[in-house]
Amino acid sequence: MYRFVDAALLRTAAYPSTLALPPAPGPVDAPEYLEEWKVWINQVWSQPFVAEAVELASPGLARQLDSLRAGEEHLPKSVRRAAASLYRYVLRLRHRATPFGMFAGIASTEFGPRMSLRWGEEHRLTAGAEAHWLAAMIARLESCRELLMRLPVVVDSTCFVRGERLVLPCARASHESRLVPGEVSVRHTPAVRRVVASAASPVTAGDVVETLAVDYPALPAGAIEELLENLVAHGMLVTSLHPPMTKDDALGHVLDQLDAIQAHDIPSAEPHVKLLRHVQAMLAAHDEASPSQQRMLRADLGQSMRSHGSTAPLVTCDLRLDCTLTLPTTVAREAERTAGVLARLSPYPSGPPAWREYHARFLTHYGPGAMVPLRDVTDPNRGLGLPGGYRGSLHERPTRSLTRRDEQLLALAQRAACEGNREVVLTDDMVADLESHDADRPPSHIDLRFCLHASSSDALDNGDFTLVASGMAPAAGATAGRFLPLLAPHDRGRMAAAYARLPTLSESAVQAQLSSPPLHPHTDNVSRAPAVWPTVVSLSEHREDPDPALGLEDLAVTADDTGLYLVVLETGRIVEPAALTTVDFATFTHPLARFLCELPRARTAAVGPFTWGAAARLPFVPRIRYHRSILTPATWTITAEDLAPSSAAFAHWHESLRRWRERFGAPATVHLGDDDRRLRLFLDDPADASLLRTELNRTGHARIREAPEPGASEWFDDRPHEITLALATTLPPTPANTHAPTHQVAPLSPDHEHVPGVSPWACLTLHCHPQHMSEVLTRLQEAVEVWPVSPSWWFVRQSDQLHLRFHLPRPHDFASLAQQAGMWATELRQHGLAGRMRWDTDVPETGRYGQGDTLHAAYDVFIADSTAALAQIALSSTGTVHPQVLAAASLVDMAISLTGGTATGTRWFIDHPPNPATARTPRQLHHEARKLADPNDTFAALRHLPGSDRVTAAWRERRHTLGVYRDLLIPKHELGPRSVLPSLLHAHHLRALGVDEDGEKLCYQLARSAALTWAARNEGAHS
Fold this sequence. Notes:
With 1023 residues, the chain is α+β, with helices and mostly antiparallel strands. Among the domains are: 132-289, no CATH class; 369-382 and 507-603, no CATH class; 753-843, Alpha-Beta Plaits, CATH 3.30.70.100; 847-1023, no CATH class. Helices cover 42% and strands 17% of the residues. It has a ten-stranded mixed sheet with strand order 3-12-2-1-29-15-16-24-23-14. It has a six-stranded mixed sheet with strand order 13-19-20-21-17-18. The model has no long low-confidence stretch (mean pLDDT 93).
């Protein structure tokens, strides 16, 4: 299912091999150990590596620890807090591989026949200006009016007009605070409207002012400039100072832009420009300096930057390790197998529930093949809005129900607990049993993170290792992307080339890189990644002409029955964006950016770390092993109520923890917390156990996972590590001709929708029981004939709703129609045949059935098919013919009429065998279908049935409308008759028999049986 590509990265702790730290003296929160903790702080803080690493990570804590070591007095509570913070950093330093300052770094990794490792101590630390500080500096520069007038500006691409206001739907958190991002709006005055029009593409703010001065001569120049300042401050105008997220040197970009406008000669801006130049020079000197000099340079940098009034973190650093690692190819092969089985065991093999629901809503609202501009489809008023669970979405996340997979895993976990087993070994048969039979495609590429347990390099070479999966990212490069600039040029080029060759889900699709600023400025530090694909999709950014990118206005959404697709409006070509970052989509990413990345993968398997589903709530779930891999560690959920109360003496509480571990079989060495925030604890140690008690006191519960015992990774000197490996699917892309749009469709806009009273079309939904629908439709057919305004109409059944479409001679005839339909519905309610009714906007399915004259011809088919379905209902009710046999014959007639010949129509059923129905089809029905659905002599068997005149007349009219529709389809090359046929057949089944998946399969089987019989007699061909 997956193959590895030449893009692997090592992440590991960077502590010196000679580092020796004293053990912790006791519980961190115990007052009686206060003096011992002071001694411990002095001993640990005297270690240069620890002090430097913590100083870089938390300057405030470092200053407090310096003060404690100097003998200054502090409150006991303050000392305990400082000790706990330092102890957490020590645990992180020794046991966590996530890159962070000097604590852990990265190195490129390759694969070969045997393992080789070189570990040195000359690691290279690369420094940069902290993003929050840089955002504050940009804001100060933008507040200099003279400088702002020289800067190019552009409207934020997510802005839109709602009523009388210009709206920025999800403005970034302010650079001055960590407030939650949210909507910002201003009055959409004529002046604001002119600004938006002028700055649709980059233009200097001064030019915009001049344009407004000409258009509004009565406005003072100062007022116009103030208007632009406010729009910039609110984020509605983006200046060129804001670097796109594909620029890895953000400070360099800012200075380049300042140089381009000669900002140094503006007195109010000159101090800021000078400081930025100074910081840039010191950062460059830092990266070339020795480790001992780097610490002094960072201290000087901090003084320079802090003197400018900022209290935010000032410098960020990334570490490239002095390490070269080659792993045996057997490790990569095991990673491939692990990724494949995780994809097979996905709890959502057809995509997350929210996206499945969104896909269904798109098909219902627009129809397959419709190409809807991205802005329109995501607008909650004009379109569908955003999927459930998204920031700002009006839709709830779909409720999760208990699945067959949940039941199986609950049984698996319960059995392991009862038998006292900490591990379950999955066999291939067990995987096949857990795997969903409705699985769709896996993502086209992913990142897999794992660590390796092996006793030695020889053991690793001999395949004697355990691969422990620790995480997944939904796109290859997401984990490594931000580190590419750190790598040596040949490694960077090798990995970028590997990413450039990654497959797409759809044939001929374009792989694109999403570039969009996160919602909090400080998150920029871990979000920047250079462009590795030629195509970039940009959101809320300022990009100049030499740096082209696709924007929201360039994109549309379309769909077919298998998935959703992002397409370029101009060409219809499919685009598959991915973000080279692991920043959490739900919390830190603009919802539209999340939408762009998730939409192409909406109906692929939701691949990630193994999840227990409903069983995750159990107090214990076992380790899951598959071949040489651990898919998930054994996990325990512990609550404060499981142990002695927090008010108890620590020794008593610690003893209750020991008894709980003994009762539940929990080990002493565990991980507390999730992913990159986890701490490795040794619960026999009072200091480590006290951190667990703190967590239980804070939240009332904690989840602990087994952690590797000391010596598990002796092949790597037992150093904590993770390997990040990019993997690409081995499945071929889906052929382009299976996707919608298979034809060029004009983008849909709200104007194409039919509003009752304004359009001659009116849409009515009537709620009624499925068993009553045939009677309701019969009554409607009789009622319409005597209404003052006699509309043409058609219907579709959907579960407990009847969807009725009326076509009126004139739009204003709707008043009469509404009155007559209301009286009819009231009568139905009085007879207990119907419930609520509502008029609604009608959205033509242009993607499914065509546009213009072609669509109107399709409407004629719907009307004729509705008449045919009603005639079939009437004939079936007499008991003369089985309703499904009659429906099967009707399907055959439709296929022949639309494809233009008996041979082509029957061949379609032969070439498209349906999935088998749940129940076995009675032989008698096949016999009846082969007779009744025989198209010879224009369905002679049907014509000879008593009372069939109405059906044959309706079919005759339908054949005529299908012929007209076919003739319009073919010369315009809009849609092929064969591509429309499945939709027409499905709609006919809904009209004639209603929603019944197995019943529909049965009808197709009967139609195919008749087609095979006809072909055998007339062509001598079997399928």
